[in-house]
Protein 1
Amino acid sequence: MTAKSLRRLLEDRGYQILRDEEVGSPEGSAWTETGDLDALGHNRGWKVALDVERSVRDLAARITALLEAGWREVLVVTDHGWLLLPGGLPKVDLPEHLTVVRKGRCARLKSGAHTDQQTVRWSLDPEISVAVAPGIATYEAGKEYEHGGLSPQECIVPVLTVTASGITPSVNATIAEVRWTGLRCRVRVERAPDGAKVDLRSRAADPSTSITPPKPLKDGAASLPVADDNREFEAAIVVVLDPDGRVLAQAPTVVGG
């Protein structure tokens, strides 16, 4: 199943599909995705370890933004773990003529093929037999990062449940209008609490990505000038903040309109 088909099935079952920094409506259920560790592992090998801290920070920021937007619970899941060994995982031989498709940690065997390595049946089609590399070995040389085998590191994955305990639910503020005049962003907000501010950011939950200093709302409106004209046409997010800096609402925009 591809990611696209999974999203389509979820939509058919009433899930909101939230892209990038979207927070959706907390009244229902939603699906969102974050992180790129798997792609980095395949592309960079052991250097994926250098990206773990950033990925965890990004995940924490995404969860915080969802909870502050009114969601009461965020369930964090992943599809698999992985093996990582600088210098390369050991290689084990599996004759290529026995296989239909061969990956680093597993291979689909041809009908009637036999091997002394462990095999399992594919749950979706028991006629298909899959060979699994032993231990932490791979069928391809030079692999520092791999998955698809039966080691605990690959098969046992955590399921994290994060609840909104200790986070004040957001009020129902709404961004009614975002309008650009040159490099000045004019924002109109409805139902914002006293002391609310508006900010223009690259990432909604990360105040360090502010493009302009936050401005307090006055009569439900604020004007945000962008001083750096090199940022024109850059993607940005208008965020409404409560007096404690929590995100109440957000809307995507492009600098300069």
Protein 2
Amino acid sequence: MEQSTGQLMEVAQRIHEMREIIGYSTAKMAELTEVDEKTYQEYESGKADLPFTFLHKSALALNVELTELLEGRAANLSSYTVTRKGMGVTTASEDGILIQNMAPLFRQKLATPYWVTYQYSEKLQHEPIHTTTHAGQEFDLVLKGSLKIRVGDNVEVLHEGDSIFYKSSTPHGMIALNNEECTFLAMIMATTEEEQSAVAKHVQAESPEANVYIRPMSEPLIADKFIKPQEDENGVLKSLSFDHAEEFNFAFDIVDEIARKHPEKLAMIHVANDMTEKRFTFKEIKDASNQTANYFTSLGIKKGDRVMLVLKRHYQFWFSILALHKIGAIAIPATNQLLDHDFEYRFSSAGVSAIVCTGDGDTSHQVEKAEEKLGISLAKIIVGEPREGWHDFNSEYGFFSRRFRRTEDTPCGDDPMIMFFTSGTTGYPKIATHSYKYALGHFVTAKYWHWVEKDGLHFTISETGWGKALWGKLYGQWLCEGAVFVYDFDKFDAGDILPMFKRYNITTFCAPPTMLRMMIKQ
């Protein structure tokens, strides 16, 4: 399938994200898509073009529409859809084959129609027909030209008006004949009656007369000193301006100020993977971040240092990133899925001098391998199971003072605060550095996108190694003085998560569309 580099990376990233949400390993996805694991990893990393068969099998494995993989949007029509001549969505264009989806926006299909064109190839006339398999049943109707099709050990020649119906799990393949291209309609259908029945379940449409919720007015926020939104009579944002941004430090000006004004106000509910629950007030977050700042300072971490945080969804992430904001060290969030070569590149390109790392899994070992390869010595701090050669965060930070004072040298405004490694479209990830003003921008994210309320509880799924965590689990939510809900799971399970909405009275929620659909289906 010939794709532009940008499109290829977007599709590959969607497959990667959906695989992680479901909790499949690359080995499992390789098995489901019937390729070897190395080939699968090349596809998912965007290093190789994605064949149609692989995309189709990936969509089946991930339980999503093929359109969602290709375009990042789900099918949304349920009554009927019209596709004009030549306007089908191209799902593959490879080796003389063009495949177009003729009903990309129709949801809950029992079958998917494809307009397929095979170019004539003299070379293929003298080679065995390449075969493939996939789930379901298939009906092919020749519209123009002639088609030689192999199904299992049988070979048939079809001409205009001829058709064939077969199980798609039987190895099959086809080529155009008679020195001309062949166009045919291919219908790929559900595998079993049970699957058809499940797909065909009635979905009640939302009433067009449903009440519209208008956000109530709330009392002034501490953030109002810095953020000046202008809204219309319905609470819709019209304009936005900022005051005192040059002086702004999120940790001191928002978190610590909320703690002083409302010390017992809930800041976070954290549920560990074993369902252990912890609740933190803003006063407790303030104190813990001050202790962590003093702890980090004792280890030699100072203003301008680059410190990587690989902490999954551990509550210690919030202590650590706020501490770094107070010190002036630059935080670099990263996922625990990185391997030694990933760490090696990031350590070298960002000039990392310290790392705070989860004790779960093999991550700390990968860090050590990268450190050894580079011949450097990092300040290494582990959260969780103690490890030789690492400082033990949980047993050490609590010995330090709960006071950490703001000084004239405290960073703010345009000083660098955080670095992200972006995926980019080619080559290695790129560094994107943001200043202390960055946090202010996510007021809009929380208030006008998430609709976070001052006394609400917001839940964003994302792991802290990704940028989404910072605009969904930290800055905007606490600028709005809402609490955040954190579930530190290893594998997504809708059955575990859904009861939490009622149990904890979660009021707002943000997650990828794929995950939302999985929860709806639960």
Protein 3
Amino acid sequence: MEINPYQVTSLATGEGDFNRLPRDIALRQFQQTFALLLVAALVNYVAFDWLIIGQMNIAYSLKMIYRGVNLFWFGVGGAAIWYGGLPLLEGVSAMLRSVFAPRVDRQAWQGVLYQFVALARWWAIACALVWLMWVGMFYGNEGYSSRLLATLFTWLVAGLISVRLLWGLCSGWVRLAWRSGEPLVSR
């Protein structure tokens, strides 16, 4: 049998860094979640621009400067979250592990974070839909009371979703620490 010179030897022998696979999947899921929420954010910006900036009685050049600055910071913030969001979450996760459960396996601890990222992707769909509903209710209605009601409703739903996600993440870490016999509070 002839050896393929283009075959990667670590894959051919079964060796390799397979611990990177869950992180790579989590990174892709994090970026998909961010892209979904970015669409809702851009719709919000377009609605704001159309309703507020587009109808203001100011010079066209000032409107374009305002739009350019906003879109520039959308790009900078988006790139920072796209490339640095998951590493930031991993850093916070590692810090929490070192404080509350230093004897728990690091890969298992991060595995709970990666499961959370996978779950967050599905919750982001609900968040994006609620956000888009808010945009329609807030910018589509003229009354102050309907805008206030839309904002309160959105805050309530977003708060409930955030609490549910954080509860899931923290309870996963607590279960992991408890199974490993790690006391969560040192005496």
Protein 4
Amino acid sequence: MRFHPLARPADPVAGPVVQRVPEASSPILARRTDGPVQVVYRRQGDDNLLVEFGDMRLDIALRLRAHLLSQAVSDAKLPGLIDITPGIRSLQLHYDGTRLTRMRLLGLLDEIERALPAAEDVVVPSRIVHLPLSWDDPDAQLAMRKYQDLVRPNAPWCPSNIEFIRRINGLADEAAVKSVVFDASYLVLGLGDVYLGAPVATPVDPRHRLVTTKYNPARTWTPENAVGIGGAYMCIYGMEGPGGYQLFGRTIQMWNTWRPTPEFRPGTPWLLRFFDQVRFFPVSHAELTEARAAFPHGAYPVRIEETRFSYADYAADLARDAGEITAFKTRQQAAFEAERARWKAEGLDSFTADDGVFAAAEGEIPEGCFGVCATVPGNVWKVVVAEGDAVAAGDTIAIIESMKMEIPIAAHAAGRIRELRLQPGRIVRGGDVVAVLDAT
């Protein structure tokens, strides 16, 4: 129940009386089933409303319908509408209820939605954006290796995400994965999926739609602009951070707050737009490093071709290639099911984190020795010395990963390593003695 206070003008001293107003138990405010696709209107808190189209599946027609509704609502300039956020098959509307009531908004949306054209008639502006891709980039490999060392050593996607992509899609070899990625034209359906300007995109041709599961649990670190697949979507990570997509390479920046350049327009510091088509071309790690240094300054030109995306043409291509598409999906589904069955047989279909602290981190420090302590809690990423090594003051003993940062543990005085009390992949607490040194 929701309670609304009612003023008592004749009795200003007394408190308000309370009127009980029934509250609907369902988040669904309305549902329309008599149009080309089902439309569901959901409440989102007190001042947001979510419009959802069709079933929860990958369907470019549904994305186009959400896009058309977004444009039409924006063009209508509804008083009280604060902002609009499009999703893959949905549209979220933030409104001021004192100027635009929920029921009024529902009525206007229904009226606008009924006037939208059919998907078969839709043509939207598009661009073909050619991006360099360092295949199996060393920084992507580092993210995989850290995950295997620190999070889940026996994960099915370790040590190579690309091999995992090959296996779960039933492809012959890793070269076949590479061929599919570089042949694909990835249609941008959303932006900001993971972080700043990050596209969520899917290949236009269903025969290029590689599918994967995501990391479980997620990575704690992903390099900026790593490229990967999650489900049937490709994503380019807009910034460094955690993540769960299966990585296959790295590209240039998706976001530029430094300055406008030919690729980054004033006021829009993101590279891609809805319905852009991303096509990758191969470069080496060294070439990508140079490109990444130059691109934010406008010194690395990106080839962009203006075009359009026609749903009618897309549907015609689907009909023409229906046999090959069905064969591809059948083979892919069989490989996916075989992979999941293997996980179950080997006990890899679930994961329980080992949060225990390395037990050997306890013990007295012998006379004539001193201990080096961890300054913060975290996972041991790398031990860079061995027992018996001589170290100087300031030398790194180990590197721990904490708060998405790599933090060195350094010796505060010179000595020789007598005992190491930590192991890669295990957890240490702040203040734990991680190494015992003989004083020199």
